[in-house]
Amino acid sequence: MGLTSERLREGLDAVAAREPRVAAALARVGYPEPRLRDRGYKTLLRTILGQQVSFKAADAIWRKLEAAVGDVDDPAALLALSGEALRGVGLSRQKMAYARSLAADTASGALDFDALPADDEDAIGLLTRVKGIGRWSAEIYLLFAEGRPDIWPAGDLAVQIETGRIMGLPDKPNERATRGLAEAWRPYRGAVAVFMWHHYSTPAI
User: What is the pLDDT of residues 41-50, one digit of tens each?
Assistant: First the structure.
């Protein structure tokens, strides 16, 4: 059912009860809105296309791909497109390879989105076997498309910045330090991650 508004509130209230600095930040900017995505190939494909480009650029590429593919939910439809057609929608050679790898793994059944391991680390390990899917992309997928409650994308820049800011650190913590700081927030780290993005985008008053 994903990280609904109710589940976000429950998780954040539990963490705020343990950590006064999170409680203060929550009082300052309020609860975040849910970020829910559909489970499956389409969402992970869009994650790949959005890597290292602005949201606006990623959206433009996605719209062109939808027009070219016809049925963007069908991995076989993408595999049927020529390299020239994929270049025409704005895919680099690298992203073309990544998209085809994901489509091939999905079409063959090597990657079954309805049967990902229940253990988060095992699921991340399976997803990162796909060419072009790193730990961050796998975590983002599991957090937003599956609503797993304890996913903590510590490699995300905004999560690092806001963790440091909320915890009163003089400098932005690196990925390892960000992961360590959140250990005390288990099993609600997913809700805290969504809150970190919310805090990052809320202007200081």
Answer: 999 999 888 8
